[in-house]
DNA sequence: ACATAATGCACAACCGATTGCGCAATACTG
DNA sequence: CAGTATTGCGCAATCGGTTGTGCATTATGT
């Protein structure tokens, strides 16, 4: 810990130790030695010298010379829900399988941080950049294009790069349908149902609202426009919305379409604080959390298919032909007692 | 997207464009130009050329030459619970504040993956490596030492590097005490209480068991050794343990000390599957999840103080004097209706 | 035995930044 | 106006690998 300048071993040191040359050592260590006709004997000697000297290659130098970093980057709003955290985790695992090193950065849904992080990643010469849930994917795509880095959008689509997203409209329609079935089973098929959470500016929320409306229309149920309340993603935004509804209608809605687990958290807190009972209301949440699900088996939840989404992502990266604005939609799954 | 070899701009290109020299361009771009007595006029010219050519420095080259990467690494078991995900998130934010780039890798509680990831990070020349919840922190520390990289342990302590962890024993004692208070308030002060989850091999679980016992002892309550069941971290391990208890005692315990949110998930699933009612039992969980908390306000939960832990971590990195095996313990907090 | 081919390895030029040093031009001093 | 100090900038070496090329040495063919 206290020794100053430990001076890491280089291939030059190894060359001396093994009584050989740097180029030979390099070839042996990176596996190209056969094609360079290095004798097996010398190769094993160098290899053993390297291992017992605890040598490790300097990726900076390798990347510089090869003009390929072997790194792929991802920017992500947050880690703190199951959807995003599993995206990060699976992305990393898939990258590793392919011999790539994944670096992930959280940008807190802040366009400036998104830009900065993307710039950082470009500086580190990532080979591709995945923009997950970016508030402004297109300006990042522009940046990347200017510097010759391919981008792919995940979760939220953009116009300047291909995108892999959930089938939000379908998912929302299925979720709403399940909610309506549940209401019907309770003998209240025409009771009011509201939509809470998300941002109207973002594509996913708009699609989910569209799916919500389609499902209602299909049953001939009228949906007053002001029962749709995309009040943002923060949990604290839910309380005023519910207060407002209660004040106006003197009663709670019979069902709530909740647009994210973070909104669900805010709603649950409000119910608890106000002393209302959640079990009297049908909840459908577009997003899935295992703890929420296990405590509320009657909740209907949409689980987005992260493994498939990430699989498609890598297919795109690995050269499947695609066009800039192309959007690949992955079907999510409805969980909860659908009886 | 289709242009082959876009050839990124270098300081040599900029030098030509600005009619200057690479060394001058370099100095201007990295901010050392004043000390190199470059005229303000030339500096602004170069800067404007660089910005409208969308130049970005090649960190690989910079790192190679400077022999400092500006990168710090962290290995982490998983992202999929609030404790670890907030560790990653706060670590990243703090690194960014200090002009460092954080790279985080999940290692799935697998010693081999831990080793591999650590080796990867060393190859990328991280300046420090944080081992979070590592199953075998010491062999990683040894590896790092051999290659001149400082390590710090987080969450689980090691002998060969300083560690920042939660005060597990204190937290467990406080949590157990809160559980006992709750039982007493229900008029059942001497009812059985069990401990479920975690691995006996890991330091944190052992400490928590010790704290659990201390709290019981302090009240003169006897705790049969086989009421303590560190059955692992996986959620599915909980079911057989509860089955066994029920079979033996013909009744459920009145209180359960749950050693992680993942175990809590398994327990909740078992209660649901078996048709038992969780609200008749006092639950205390060593770990915190906001959704679990909001759905079960009566749950007692321990929230580890991640912001402070990460703060201490950076203090250690920034050269506070420390000795190899030193352990810094941070007090966690008990949440839940403590009335 | 001699020409040719194959084998085994090392040389040296990169990749793109950083930085010690030196040189010219200008400013200042007496 | 000669001599020194300061200003402003570029040269070239360097970080640690990679890779095109070339030169001995040994093997093969006739």
Structure description:
2 copies of one chain form a homodimer. The first copy, chain A, contains 13 helices and 14 strands. The radius of gyration of chain A is 26 Å and the shape is elongated. Chain A has helices at residues 11-17, 22-30, 40-52, 59-66, 82-97, 111-123, 137-146, 168-185, 203-218, 238-249, 261-274, 290-295, 306-317, and strands at 71-76, 101-106, 128-132, 150-154, 163-166, 193-196, 198-199, 228-229, 231-232, 255-258, 282-285, 300-303, 327-330, 333-335. Chains A and B meet through helix 4, helix 5, strand 2, helix 6 and helix 7 of A and helix 4, helix 5, strand 2, helix 6 and helix 7 of B. The first copy, chain A, binds a DNA duplex (30 and 30 nucleotides) through residues 8, 10-12, 20-27, 29-30, 32, 36-39, 42, 57-67.
Notable traits:
homodimer, 339 residues, alpha/beta, 434 Repressor (Amino-terminal Domain), Rossmann fold, 3 domains, six-stranded parallel sheet, six-stranded mixed sheet, 14 strands, elongated, DNA-binding
Mean pLDDT of chain A: 94
Q: How many strand elements of chain A?
A: 14
* Most extensive interface between two protein chains, with residue counts: A-B, 58 and 58 residues
CATH class of the largest domain in chain A: Alpha Beta
Brief description of this entry?
The first copy, chain A, is α/β, with parallel strands linked by helices. Helix content of chain A is 45%, strand content 16%.
């Amino acid at each position: 810990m206290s020794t100053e300048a430990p001076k890491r071993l280089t291939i030059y040191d190894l060359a001396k130790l093994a009584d050989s040359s740097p180029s030979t050592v390099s070839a042996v260590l990176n596996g190209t030695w056969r094609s360079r006709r290095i004798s097996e004997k010398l190769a094993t000697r160098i290899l053993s010298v390297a291992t017992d000297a605890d040598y490790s290659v300097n990726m900076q130098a390798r990347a510089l010379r090869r003009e390929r970093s072997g790194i792929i980057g991802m920017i992500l709003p947050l880690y703190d829900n199951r959807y995003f955290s599993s995206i990060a985790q699976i992305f990393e695992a898939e990258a590793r399988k392919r011999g790539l090193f994944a670096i992930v950065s959280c940008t807190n849904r802040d366009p400036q941080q998104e830009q900065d992080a993307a710039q950082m990643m470009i500086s580190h010469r990532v080979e591709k950049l995945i923009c997950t849930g970016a508030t402004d994917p297109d300006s990042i795509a522009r940046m990347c294009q200017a510097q010759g880095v391919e981008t792919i959008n995940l979760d939220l689509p953009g116009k300047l790069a291909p995108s892999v997203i959930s089938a939000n409209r379908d998912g929302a329609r299925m979720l709403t349908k399940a909610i309506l079935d549940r209401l019907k089973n309770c003998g209240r098929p025409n009771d009011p149902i509201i939509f809470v959470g998300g941002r109207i500016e973002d594509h996913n929320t708009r699609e989910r609202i569209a799916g919500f409306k389609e499902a209602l229309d299909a049953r001939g149920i009228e949906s007053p426009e002001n029962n749709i309340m995309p009040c943002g993603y923060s949990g604290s935004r839910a309380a005023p919305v519910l207060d407002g509804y209660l004040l106006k209608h003197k009663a709670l809605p019979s069902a709530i379409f909740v647009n994210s687990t973070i909104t669900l958290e805010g709603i649950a807190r409000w119910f608890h604080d106000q002393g209302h009972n959640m079990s009297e209301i049908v909840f459908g949440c577009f997003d899935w959390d295992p703890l929420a699900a296990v405590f509320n088996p009657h909740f209907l939840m949409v689980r987005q298919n992260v493994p498939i989404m990430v699989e498609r992502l890598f297919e795109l990266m690995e050269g499947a032909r695609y066009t800039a604005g192309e959007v690949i939609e992955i079907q999510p799954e409805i969980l909860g007692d659908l009886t």
